[in-house]
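Field: COMPLEX_INPUT
Field: COMPONENT_COUNT = two
Field: RESIDUE_TOTAL = 438
Field: MODE = joint
Values follow.
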Amino acid sequence: MVKIDLLVNGKKHSLEVEEDMRLIDLLREKLGLTGVKEGCSEGECGACTVIMDGEVVNSCLVMAFQAHESNIITIEGLDEEGSLHPLQQAFIDAGAVQCGYCTPGMILSAKALLDKNPNPTEEEIREGISGNLCRCTGYNKIVEAINRAKGV
Amino acid sequence: MQVHKGETLDEVVRLLDQYKDRGKLIAGGTDLIIAMRNKKINIDALIDISTIAELQGVRDAGEYISIGAATTFTQLMESPLLEENLDGLKKASRQVGSPQIRNKGTIGGNIANGSPAADSVPPLLCLDSQLILMSTRGERSISLKDYYEKDMKIEEDEIIREIQFKKPKFNQVLTFSKLGLRKALAISRLSIAILLELDGDKVKTIRVASGSLGRYPLREYRVEEFLIGKEIREEVIDEAVLVLKEAMDERLKGRPTLPYKRRAVEWAFKDAIEEGVKRLKGVEAW
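Field: COMPLEX_OUTPUT
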């Protein structure tokens, strides 16, 4: 076991983790943050996307011990005092959620994009979510949702 | 398994000396973690180098550019030092995986992993890059080309510390073209990087490197020899493509992908060279 300290959704955690544990396992199993989804386990699908020190990463491709002293945001950390984040609301309004499995990762990729570039073009939006696969929507509704949320 | 979160380069080098081939470095982890989970790797220690400041960033070293081995593709894409005539390296970085992969994956990892499809390597080969290696015994440098030709072996206690190359002259451009099967997250089917300098319409300097056209990324010397001193015209480029195809035929003989790659390489090569001519002359090539 190895001891790590990290910030998850603004809260400090000091935990003992297994050496071969991945960040996704830490978040889901130790902290119960099951909004982090496991899809392909090899960095192709983006369902496990979290924001690590301001940048999106696949949490299936980060070892838990590597996250020592990092700042992680998951979908559970997005609500603002009990109300939905504008991106979450826009996904609902635009009908951008179907089965929902890709949605947490998709919204976090959109958030990281808007944090860096508050007024992206459609092409920049598509590039920003290119590491997140959605097999239901055909992406148009998702792009529309991100378009609605920008500047909010 | 032991895990170490390295804080300084000295510490990492000491750990490598201690574990030798039983220890493995992890930076972005985008390939290594998958290999570990598939039980393809059995080691005693994992040494994380992803947050060591000394290993990160693109640095202007006068005549040279130096890139820390743990510099991510996102950092390369955002580096102001890789503008204009080094755009080909930036373009290659931009085409790696996805935003998530580019935020974690590193240039040193791309090299250390030895994939024939490593996107960043053909541009680095065109730049005659050197690898600076470090161990408790000191540092040494080897050319990137020798690294690949010698089976990608570095000593078990060594780390790739940085990649260095001489800045191209202002009238030389570096271009890159990649054919993937889809827009994002595509492993290169093949890629071509070209460094080009013209003297009027004649080719003054040319370096061509390919990815996925052999066991490892390599320089296409025969094409370079064919083109040097020649006037750059469409018919000449068509002949150069034939030279490249001949070289591929020998290397990839019997591979089921050869017929496909023979056709696809034509597009990638022409795209890279046309972009170079366009950028040097400011007008479409032909």
